[in-house]
Structure formats: C-alpha cells, structure tokens
Design brief:
Layout (H helix, E strand, L loop, with lengths): L3 H13 L3 H10 L6 H8 L8 H11 L3 H12 L1 H24 L2 H18 L8 H9 L3 H8 L2 E6 L4 E6 L14 H13 L9 H27 L1
Antiparallel strand pairs: 1-2
Helix pairs in contact: 1-4, 1-5, 2-3, 4-5, 5-9, 6-8, 6-9
C-alpha cells in the first residue's frame, strides 16, 4: 500500500473503530451498495480510488477529512499528467480544465444567475460577468479546488509533443464499483445493443460500457435541453 488515498482511508477506518461490514451497512443506508471486500481492496491499495460519491460517504462515516480524501484520490488518477508535464505543466493542465468549463454558454449563464441573486441580496448593482472574468476567478481558486474540479473532465496526452487535450468526462455507472450492475441490468443493455442491429456477435464488455456511456451522455444532454426549454 503506497498510495496516499489508501493510507488516508486506512487511517480513517482504523480511527473510526468501525468494521468493514459496519461501514458497508452505513453506506447502504445512504443508498450506496458497496461490500466489505471492495472497501478492503480500497484501503489496501489493491483498487484505484473510488468515485467521489463513495469516497465522500466513507470519509463522512469514518469521521475523516472529506476534501482531503477526495483530493488524494484525484491526485492518484492524475499522476500520469503530473509525471509527464511536471509541476508547471500540471498547473497549466488544471487551468485549461477551467478554461474549457467556463467557455460553455450554459455555465456562464448559471454563474450569472448566481451572481445576480447575490447582488440582489446585498443590494448592489448587477453587472453580468463575462467568461474571461469567471475564468480568472476560478484560476485563482486553491489547487485542491482545481484538482477536485478536474475529476469531471478526462484528457489525452501527446507524449511526443508533451501536450494534452481536455474533454468533458461522461461517467459510466460501470466505472463505479465491481458488481454494481446486476445480470438483469446488463441484459437490458444487451437487448438495446441487439435492437441497434449489432447482434451478429455477442457484445463485448467494452462495447457494453461504451453503450452505457453513450446512453448517459444522451440523458445528460436531454436533461440540459429540457432545462433550457423550461427557462424560455
């Protein structure tokens, strides 16, 4: 066990005096289905850091520092970027995530709605913020906040040119934990796969995961479109 995430998690669990079975039950009470063997693998460093939802819940249950554990988990995922780009390049990478985020029109709109509410509450004139102003505010945020924000994006590294490209991260439920999907749920995706006309060969696991991600992306887009239409 050599990851900061695993060391912190092990420390929080030990300090809480809770058994892994008890933690699993408390997670179930939060509608998070994680068995004791998965928690054991996390704390022994035999599994990559869990999702933010699971990490946050375990930290809360054990009385650990939520923010510290989330940052440790994300830093472990970002090791390839830090090792490839160095400290200066890594900070540029985090700022590029912010730049990508605030360039989305819906994000700027949401930030201005929050800004307007705050101005009204404080009795000061409201002046809409532009993307550049919002980007500057976020770039001045703490390193920990930037690292937490980075979990909502993925990236590709060009090792030849020592550059990276940032993309929004669409998370598949299949990425959460082992056994998160039941056989019945996987069968549902297999049926969708077959109905799309790809039934000559049984779908491979990566193809099923790609379909889950595509469906999640569609739902996220649909939710955003529905939300936008209600505002009009």
């Amino acid at each position: 066990m050599n990851s900061t995430y695993a060391l912190l998690l092990s420390k929080y669990i030990e300090k809480s005096k809770l058994s892994l079975g008890e933690i699993s039950l408390k997670l179930a009470a939060k509608n998070i289905k994680v068995d004791r063997s998965y928690i054991s693998k996390l704390k022994n460093g035999n599994k990559p850091p869990a999702s933010e939802e699971i990490t946050k819940a375990i930290a809360e249950i054990t009385g650990g520092d939520v923010n510290k554990l989330i940052v440790a988990g994300q830093m472990e995922r970002l090791k390839p970027v830090l090792e490839e780009l160095g400290q200066e390049g890594f900070e540029e990478f985090l700022n590029s995530i912010i730049g990508y985020m605030v360039s989305r029109d819906h994000f700027v709109q949401e930030m201005n709605e929050r800004h307007k509410t705050k101005c009204l509450a404080e009795g000061i004139p409201f002046t809409p913020l532009h993307g550049d102003e919002i980007r500057k505010q976020f770039q001045n945020a703490s390193m920990d906040d930037k690292i937490i924000l980075s979990q909502y994006f993925t990236y590709t590294l060009d090792k030849t040119n020592n550059t990276f490209t940032v993309h929004p991260f669409v998370k598949s439920d299949a990425d959460d934990i082992e056994g998160n999907y039941s056989d019945a749920e996987d069968e549902k995706y297999k049926r969708v796969y077959e109905e799309l006309g790809f039934d000559e060969d049984p779908p491979k696991e990566d193809e099923l995961n790609a379909l889950k991600i595509a469906l999640r992306a569609y739902r996220m887009g649909k939710d955003q479109r529905d939300s936008d239409s209600k505002k009009k």
